[in-house]
Amino acid sequence: MRSDGRTSDRARPATIQPGFIASAHGSVLISVGETRLICTAMVQDSVPPWLRGKGRGWVSAEYGMLPGSTGERRQRESSRGKVDGRTQEIQRLIGRSLRAVTDLDALGERMIWVDCDVIQADGGTRCAGITGGYVALELALRGLVRDGALSELPLTDSVAAISVGIVDGTPLLDLCYVEDSAAEVDMNVVMTGSGRIVEVQATAEGQTFTRDELDTMLDLAVPGIEELRALVADRQFLVGPLGPAALQRAIEEPAAAAGLTLEDGLTRRILADVASQPGALPLMEAHSPCPVCGSPVQRIVHADNETNYCAVCQNEGRRLADRALSRLLHDSYARTMDDD
């Protein structure tokens, strides 16, 4: 039994939360076990000099680990003045994997930058970067199709990756950090949605391995990648709290992509209905108009907790008591919406 209770052939639970960075053309927060990465994709309407005038695009990736992503603070590479060899190897791997499923001719003279930033590392960060990076890339490309910049999605397939290794003589799928650091053999497998291999990185860490052991590890990797591919293909994404504008896009954009016309006022009624439910507070953005009554959404902070609410719809026009503000403003503190 492994440290986290998994059997040798079980991958860690994986979730993908799209739209994690609102300003990016495509973004996800991907979690694989305790490993977490933010992956963003940004479209640039130019290409490297060596591609200019050729009518083809390019996809490139960058990878980095935040200082607090590991047990001890990791020095930023910018402060060291150079990118280390491991980082260069990983970001090249991510870029190659994404280009393997992108039709660069159909992309046109555009550059897609995919950035994979590790915010918490517990093994398998490069594989999570490939899987999350692909979803961010697809989201950015779908935006180009939606905006009319591309007539169709310039992707030939999907791509995902997972790690495998041999620890204490036992082949294991999807190694966490404790297993990875003790592995006699460490391998990363990248495959497309149709089951074709993009890349296999296998390294003996002080002990060689046989052809049979290599085949065993590949046999372990395939079902693990199948799970990730199904997660991506079936859009089994974890949707986090949405503001009204993001929820409106989530309703209208898929309908438009399917060629459907929504009934007049339908989106507004859905927003109002969702906002009236018990779990609706995350839909309200502080200081923005309430989607039901239009009054400014309020924010209250207590210790390390905070929440947004509509004083009119949810508290009969009274603001919730905010001791910090009332002490600061004394008699000037507006206790009801009419006091403004």
Helix-strand category: alpha+beta
Give the biggest sheet. Answer: 5 strands, mixed
Give, in spatial order, the strands making up the sheet with the most strands: 1-2-3-5-4
Share of helix, binned:
25-40%
Order of helices and strands: EEEEHHHEHEEHEEHHHEEHH
Q: Count of DSSP E strands?
A: 11
Question: How big a fraction of the residues is strand?
Answer: 15-25%
H/I helix tally: 10
CA-atom Rg in angstroms: 24 Å
Shape: globular
The N- and C-terminal alpha carbons lie at a distance of: 62 Å
> Mean of residue pLDDT?
84
Low-confidence stretches: none
What features would you describe in this structure?
By secondary structure, this protein is α+β, with helices and mostly antiparallel strands. The chain contains ten helices and eleven strands. Strand 8 and strand 9 form a beta hairpin. Helix 2 crosses helix 4. The longest helix has 23 residues.
